[in-house]
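Dear colleagues,

As part of the handover before I leave the project, I'm documenting each prediction I ran so the next person doesn't have to rerun anything. This entry is a single chain, and its sequence is reproduced below.
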Amino acid sequence: MDTRLSIVVIEDNDELRAATIDVLSRAGHKVLGLDCAEVMPELAALTLVDLMIIDLNLPGEDGLSLAQRVRQNHPEIGIIITTARSDSSQRQEGYAKGADIYMTKPMALAELSAAIQSLGRRLKGISEPEMLLLNVSKLTLLGPHGQVLGLTSTEAKLLTAFNLSPDRRLEKWQLIEVLEKDSANNPLATLELVIVRLRKKIRQLGIEDQSIKVIRNWGYQFCLPVVVTT
């Protein structure tokens, strides 16, 4: 099934808009870049658009208002809101206005591309494993349905280590070394506590299956694909 998308990028920063268009075009998508909502084609003309990337702080009509109009008239279009605002109440408002994914700037274009790939496959009805996006500098984890949660530095280290290992498997002693828990009174119990807490957080992203599997008498395997950005 064709996973290429028709994407509209509405971003008033000329350099960021151009860079985004370049990355998405090279990935095979058809991309239209606009600097404000007022130059957007009439809503009736958006029937062939798959996804819109909307900056929140646009001149004229703001991104939230635009996202709400698009969602009301074209509920089938995917919407990603990008913004420098990271307040949780603003994030909640973004989702309430129709965003599928709310991403905080500055963000790596690789992270945006991965989010687009995941959302695009859902829009086209392609079944795929749940994918997570880990930002190690912000200590955030983006889930497949757009939810974002904060991680501790220990949890981020754990995910990064799993992601770098073959088949995302690590022995217990390797994980203890990665997490620098060698000097703990009970290193295995400390590791198990970190695993339990991380599993619980991942369930908050709407992923019900076991994300971290125990390999008896050996170690653990992380069962979800992860894209790591900085």
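Residues 148-229 form a domain with the Arc Repressor Mutant, subunit A fold (CATH 1.10.10.10). The mean pLDDT is 84.

All the best with the project,
I.
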